[in-house]
């Protein structure tokens, strides 16, 4: 093989893998209305899809509520939970509003108590990427490696893209939850239809708009195509959730 071709090929594969991860994450969260359930799905999908990442966690700060955490492995759940101490890579990423990296925890001195616990649990490297959800929620996506120097620049780029995409998806989850609560108060409506709510979530993620605007987009499409609103929603959800060709 031409050595000069290896880097472009590797970069292309990396782009395809990242695109597949973001697509899988979207498909996994479009029908979720519970924030904690969404966090659990996020850390599981990220762990399973990223080679070199052994565990994944999420730390969330919610206005007026205790800090929340999710972990792909319950054994490591305490590493993401601020009740065990605020001095951690997750909290540093949130405070500094930028990605935090430690490729080798054996040489790490920034978070001594946290690092000691992490190393006891087998963690050897960490990336924490700040996630902006909405005006009331901010968090950190935490990727853990079980081997030293396993986290590469590609992992850092993927973590940055994943954090941005996760922020949009989690914001949509919170909007759907608010819309569902409002629908419960006002009585049955379009968003009470599960597939319509899922389609609204997809449009909110794609356009960065609120639930009311996304629903109006769906209604306009239904009018233009002269087909029922539910059918438009089913087509959209089916397209986004369709498995990739192998």
From TrEMBL:
Residue ranges of domain ANTAR in the record: 176-237
Keywords, alphabetical: Transcription, Transcription regulation
Record-linked SUPFAM superfamilies: GAF domain-like
Pfam families reported in the protein's UniProt record: ANTAR, GAF_2
Keyword Iron-sulfur (UniProt): no
Protein name: GAF and ANTAR domain-containing protein
Native source organism of the sequence: Micromonospora thermarum
